[in-house]
């Protein structure tokens, strides 16, 4: 650590120097004085190894350790600012020259992570904090009312690419309705099944709704795949336009063009032994009637098959009338949004 940093943060205080006075109660979050754990028979809580500064003017006591920090780091918290003023106005809670003592129920881990953010110098640039640090910071900023720090933590968490269930969990704790739509959409669209831990976090009511929407989404995707496949198939074109022989007379197998010029017809008029005339057909005209009959039969089968495929498409379409457009496409956003709103899974921002 540089000399400048050490002068700003002070020197970690020793256990003995941080020992609270036996006669001074601390002020709790609800404004009540607490004198428990102050008798000589109770062990003194150790100072936090990272955030116990000899020049700190506020002492925060958690369930397992003591923080001694600088007051300017707490002034932006509305609740802390109020508690500090209240404690200093009460002779039983404050002794001049001693740090102001405040008793807090939040975990020491949350406080330590929050102070890591607060004591990070802006000169070092925009650091990326871990999800655990930002989650703790968001928790302390919410409980002790520091809107700017809360927004900072939320913005930092948004950049970390948290999973859908993590965003839902944070929204449950910190009321972040703007996260819920994308989180539940991702969860309902995800191919992986819901895990037991995720089910426990969601609770029975939300789990039932999510399972219903996930099943409907799978059916919708299957329908969409079939319809898109139908749209590209050549048989579909025959349903609205009945095939005619004339349409295919210039097409060969696989749609390849037949040469425009055929061999010359060499049919001849001949006489039999009875002097009766007849047409001696060339090879082309000998097989032409059979080819024509077979083509007509194939075209009829082609039309029947196309009609069957189209009927199947209509059945699929009818199962999803509000989500499949006339071109056969399915709207992902509108379907999930409708289902999520129907299930009331997303909280309104107005309810915050």
In short:
This protein is an alpha/beta fold and 352 residues long.
Structure report:
With 352 residues, the chain is α/β, with parallel strands linked by helices. It has a domain at 3-161: Potassium Channel Kv1.1, Chain A, CATH 3.30.710.10. 50% of the residues lie in helices and 9% in strands. The protein contains 13 helices and eight strands. The strands form two sheets. It has a six-stranded mixed beta sheet with strand order 2-1-6-4-5-3, with helices on one face. Strands 7-8 form a two-stranded antiparallel sheet. A hairpin with a 4-residue loop joins β4 and β5. α4 crosses α5 (131-143), α7 packs antiparallel against α8 (177-189) and α9 packs antiparallel against α13 (332-343).
Keywords:
alpha/beta, Potassium Channel Kv1.1, Chain A, two-stranded antiparallel sheet, 50% helix, 9% strand, rod-shaped
For the residues shown, what is the average pLDDT?
77
How many distinct beta strands? 8
Q: What is the CATH C level class of the domain at 3-161, in words?
A: Alpha Beta
Cα gyration radius (Å): 40 Å
């Amino acid at each position: 650590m540089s000399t400048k940093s050490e002068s700003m943060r002070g020197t970690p205080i020793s256990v003995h120097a941080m020992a609270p006075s036996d006669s001074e109660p601390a002020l709790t979050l609800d404004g009540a004085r607490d004198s428990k754990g102050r008798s000589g028979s109770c062990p003194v809580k150790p100072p936090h190894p990272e955030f116990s500064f000899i020049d700190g003017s506020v002492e925060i006591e958690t369930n397992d350790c003591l923080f001694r920090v600088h007051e300017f780091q707490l002034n932006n918290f509305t609740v802390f600012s109020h508690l500090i003023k209240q404690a200093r106005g009460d002779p039983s809670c404050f002794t001049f020259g001693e740090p102001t003592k405040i008793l807090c129920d939040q975990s020491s881990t949350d406080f330590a992570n929050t102070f890591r953010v607060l004591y990070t110098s802006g000169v070092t640039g925009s650091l990326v904090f871990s999800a655990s640090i930002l989650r703790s910071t968001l928790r302390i900023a919410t409980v002790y009312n520091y809107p700017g720090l809360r927004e900072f933590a939320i913005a930092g968490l948004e950049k970390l690419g948290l999973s859908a269930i993590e965003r839902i969990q944070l929204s449950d704790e910190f009321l972040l309705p703007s996260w819920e739509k994308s989180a539940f959409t991702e969860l309902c669209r995800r191919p992986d099944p819901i895990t037991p831990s995720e089910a426990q976090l969601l609770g029975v009511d939300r789990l039932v709704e999510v399972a219903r929407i996930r099943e409907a989404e799978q059916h919708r995707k299957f329908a969409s795949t079939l319809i898109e496949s139908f749209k590209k198939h050549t048989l579909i074109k025959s349903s609205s336009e009945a095939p005619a022989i004339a349409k295919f007379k210039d097409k060969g197998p696989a749609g390849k063009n037949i040469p425009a010029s055929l061999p010359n017809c060499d049919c001849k008029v001949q006489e039999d032994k009875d002097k009766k005339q007849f047409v001696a057909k060339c090879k082309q005209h000998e097989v032409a009637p059979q080819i024509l009959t077979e083509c007509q039969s194939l075209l009829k089968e082609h039309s029947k098959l196309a009609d069957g495929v189209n009927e199947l498409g209509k059945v699929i379409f009818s199962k999803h009338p509000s989500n499949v457009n006339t071109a056969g496409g399915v709207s992902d956003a509108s379907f999930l949004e409708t289902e999520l709103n129907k299930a009331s899974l997303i909280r309104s921002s107005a309810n915050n």
